[in-house]
Amino acid sequence: MLVFATETSCDETSVCLMENENIIQHITFSQEIHKKYGGVVPELASRSHLEKIQYMTNQLFLNNNIEPDKIDVFTATCGPGLIGSLLVGSTFTKSLAVSFKKPFIPINHLEGHILSTSFNNNIKFPNLVLLLTGGHTQVYLMKDEGCVELLGQSVDDAIGEAFDKTAKLIGLSYPGGSEIEREAINGNENKFVLPKPLVKEKNFNFSFSGIKTHISILTKKNKINKKFIKDLSASFQKNIAEILTEKIERGLERLKSDNITINSISVVGGVSNNKYIRKKIESVFIKYGIEIYYPLPEMMGDNAAMIAWACVKFYNKKKSDLFFKPKSRLNVRSVL
Ligand code: ZN
User: Fold this and answer.
1) How far is the CA of 9 from the CAs of 44, 46, 112, 148, in angstroms?
2) Whole-number Å distance between alpha carbons of 147 and 136
3) Percentage helix, strand, coil, to 5, in the chain?
4) Partner residues linked to 2 by β-bridges
5) Are 93 and 105 in contact (CB under 8 A)?
6) How far is the CA of 264 from the centre of ligand 1 (A)?
7) Each residue of 86-111: pLDDT tens digit?
8) How many angstroms does the Cα of residue 193 sit away from the middle of ligand 1?
9) Mean pLDDT within 72-82
10) Are 278 and 294 in contact (CB under 8 A)?
11) Is there a contact between 322 and 98 (Cβ–Cβ < 8 Å)?
12) Angle formed at CA 268 by CA 289 and CA 25, multiple of 5 degrees
């Protein structure tokens, strides 16, 4: 099965050709235009997708000497995300499906992230999925292949958003995740004690917005120099990693009382790229005999390869739907 996939839910334009379980080629363009605004500007994002997607698709087919009429299935992210951006990618991909009289499969972006570790790992179930991105912080239970239940999520900011907002407060550029990780390397992680909201509760809900408020106060009380930036980055990163591990440990206790023993944890989404957070998660959960999985590097951020994979993996359960309307909010169904 030859699949062409697009992903345009936020500020990455991405196209991918996948044949069965092999990525033929995957091209992603990260929009730079948002840097000067310190965050994604929706109108600029959709315009940039529009400028790039046709050119990138042409390149993809030319590079691999594949004619579009050879594609068996066309698929695109149809939510959640920025509605203008979703409309660009999904309408473009639908139009190809119509032109070549082939099926069009709408894919949920979150489903793409959730399934991303199954591309390069043999998942041991029950599997706990930590979805850590700029738009979402969610925990899913995957009892078995394709059987997904949302256990909890952030009640306010997403984890990636917390990184971006903190970076902005201390004068680092957007996106903030990699900037904070770099500054934190030589910082004193015990310098600032930051709040850990909701951490004592035995559930999988998170709250990150109070940390931002606390950091905002610190930036007013302290001189923002190189040392402050490094120490605050390190303290913030440590705090976030501890919130994640402490909450998951408590959540696992609750699952155990419901007779569910987790065998593996998938850490997915852009924040799974953070080496400090990875180490912390590994150091806490490997001792419980839990396997930790990460996606391939190219499937961590927003990308069309995970969309192609979600389409390939559960193709038998999907229906072609040219009339599916993209949605800015879209939940993951229990059967993917
Ligand atoms: Zn994403």
Assistant:
1) 13, 9, 12, 22
2) 20
3) 45, 20, 35
4) 19
5) no
6) 21
7) 999 999 999 999 999 999 999 999 99
8) 30
9) 97
10) yes
11) yes
12) 120
Identify the burial level of 139 via C-beta atoms within 10 angstroms of its C-beta, where 0-12 means exposed, 13-18 middle and 19 or more buried: buried
Q: Is the pTM of this model over 0.90?
A: yes
CA of 165 to the centre of ligand 1 (A): 18
Contact present, 160 and 269 (Cβ < 8 Å): yes
pLDDT tens digits for range 303-336: 999 999 999 999 999 999 999 999 999 999 755 6
Give 300 Cα–ligand 1 centroid separation in angstroms. 8
* Helices and strands: H and E segment counts in the chain: 9, 10
Nearest Cα residue to 90 out of 192, 203, 7: 7
3-state secondary structure of 195: coil
Q: Provide φ and ψ at 251, rounded to 5°.
A: -60, -40
* Distance from residue 240's CA to the centre of ligand 1 (Å): 19
What is the whole-number distance in angstroms between the Cα of residue 113 and the centre of ligand 1? Answer: 7
Give first-to-last CA distance, the chain, whole Å: 19
Q: List C-alpha distances in Å: 196 to 5, 8, 72, 97, 247.
A: 39, 33, 49, 48, 10
Q: In the sheet where 137-144 sits, what is the strand order?
A: 147-153, 137-144, 127-132, 264-268, 291-293
DSSP string covering 244-255, please? HHHHHHHHHHHH
Q: How far is the CA of 302 from the centre of ligand 1 (A)?
A: 5
Task: State the distance from the centre of ligand 1 to the C-alpha of 42, rounded, in angstroms.
Answer: 15
Instruction: Give the distance (Å) from ligand 1 centre to CA of residue 219.
Output: 30
pLDDT of residue 336: 63
> Is it the case that residue 244 has pLDDT exceeding 90?
yes
Secondary element (H or E) of residue 130:
strand 127-132
Q: How close is the Cα of 223 to the center of ligand 1, in Å?
A: 35
